[in-house]
Amino acid sequence: MQIKFDQVSADYQLGPIRAKNIIDNVSLQIAPATFTAVIGQTGAGKTSLLKLINGILRPSSGSIQVGEFTLDHSANKATLNQVRSRVGMVFQFPENQLFAETVEADIAFGPKNFNFSAEEVDQSVYRSLERVGLDQSLLKRSPFSLSGGQQRRVALAGVLATKPDILVLDEPGAGLDARGKQEIFALIKKLNQQDRVTVLVVTHDMNDVAIYADHVLLLDQGKVVTYQETRAFFSDQDQLTEWNLELPDTLHLQRQIERRTGINFKQISLTQTELIDQLIEEKLL
Ligand SMILES: Nc1ncnc2c1ncn2[C@@H]1O[C@H](COP(=O)(O)OP(=O)(O)O)[C@@H](O)[C@H]1O
Ligand SMILES: [Mg+2]
Q1: Å from CA of 10 to ligand 1 middle
Q2: Which residues in the chain land under pLDDT 50?
């Protein structure tokens, strides 16, 4: 599903006070089945942007096209519900929202809510449990008896069970150890590549961006600084410096090797494999 922002602004109304232009005149087109990393400092508007795509936050002006639906200031409830059934949102620490007595009931909640038939509910519960790599033996367990990493998978399975075309995730790796985080990102990448789910992920880790994302969206004060392909993004050293962004480990290593040897590699290394290939090509290995 395609996502198109057309001059979108948004704000939060807090009683009489209005936080102005949290999202500020954003125009942006995100192609179907792409994997976008959303980055920017705290308060830049990353979470708000995800909420706009999911219809939790409504634009104050402009419009957002999500597939065949249009979200604008006057979008009605039916449209918002339809968009929510197509866009799965995984909040930060989604395990905090687990509530049911069993894992099965928790995962089934979304599809039931969207009026899946009993048979479809069962199928999607099993399918999404398998997708997140959890065993069926957990279905009758209380979600609260599981480990933190397992709880996060259950929460993710609950969103996947609604069969979204678009998945937006707010720092899905936060608070997990390196391995748990890598597993979650690998899983999201698989959904993106095999099921052609359009993915937007908020992350602070440039390694995640380099390894998994095909596009980078950098926000600052509610505005789009840049939206570009990952390789082009990490090739623009001036921009990285200007925005004080860390380099992914592989690129950092490459820059050190280039400095020490005086050899400039032909392209930037986004993964370990790419770095090794280039070292071999330059006869440094
Ligand atoms: N519910 C809310 N009510 C009022 N202001 C909010 C609310 N949520 C976020 N904001 C403000 O909107 C701005 C963008 O927030 P957010 O989208 O959460 O940024 P990020 O996810 O990049 O940290 C911040 O200035 C924040 O204080
Ligand atoms: Mg946020």
Answers
A1: 11
A2: none
Q: Which of 9, 12, 49, 221 to mutate to test the pocket of ligand 1 (most atoms within 8 A of CB)?
A: 12
Ligand 1 centre distance from Cα of residue 43 (Å): 5
pLDDT at 23: 97
The CA distance from 239 to 258, in Å, is 20
- The pLDDT of residue 14: 79
Ligand 2 centroid from CA 62, angstroms: 22
12 Cβ inside 6 Å of ligand 1: yes
Q: Which domains does the chain have, with CATH numbers?
A: 3-231 (3.40.50.300), 247-285 (no CATH)
Determine the pLDDT at residue 16: 81
Q: Give the closest ligand to the alpha carbon of residue 38.
A: 1
Tell me, what's the pLDDT at 285?
87
